[in-house]
Description:
Radius of gyration: 19 Å
Distance between the termini: 13 Å
CATH class of the largest domain: Alpha Beta
Strand content: 15-25%
Helix content: 25-40%
Number of domains: 2
Strand order of the largest sheet: 2-1-3-5-6-4
Shape: elongated
Amino acid sequence: MEENENKYLFALVGKNISYSFSRGYFTEKFSKLGLRKHEYVNFDIQKIEEFTKKIKEHKNDIKGMNVTIPYKLEIFDFLDKIDKKASKIGAVNTVRITKKGKLIGYNTDVYGFKKSLTPLLKKHHEKALILGTGGASKAVAYVLDKLNIEYKFVSRTPKGKDTITYADVSEKVMMSHLLLINCTPLGTHPNIENCPSIPYEFVSEKHMLYDLIYNPSETTFLQKGKEKGATIKNGLEMLEQQAEKAWKIWNK
């Protein structure tokens, strides 16, 4: 592979992503593996239409991409093919580029989330609240379906029968939904004091609070759970696992 004169470029597609986990993770990975011609960069674009230009600029080198907020759904229109699972989930976070230049979309968030969540689940985690309705929440819902865990989405602007507002999250709802998953960006660095608006006074030792955010490692959402003796987990392992899955897909 190293004999090839081409460089091997990989990228994260997103908006305002200077903080990106992926770039640091893969840069370190390439260094450890001695892959000197591999490089990972950010395609920090303000609107999805700029994606085509980026691909054209790097068409000889680009081999794969990760996709993050807010383009996990919008990217669909720019792909040649979408994996069945990603299509069912309704979100793509990994793109493989074939030797013929075809762009194929996958979702590795599902793999990462399931791998990091499952060891912590107890029998009483039968119902969940998914906070937020963005691209990542779709992968979370897909996994919960597979694990036979009932769930409701919580949104500021609810749509559909499975979605309630934050005002609807009562003591009764909190006591019957013992798995709380934050899929919103609330609490991400630098605005670390923010957190989803739910009644934390009803969190108990039986609850598990899972935050897809990894920076800071302990968000306000998780701190509030910890104070009540709940099990807490951040999104770092999920990111690491989904990144490794993406690496396998790119090297098919």
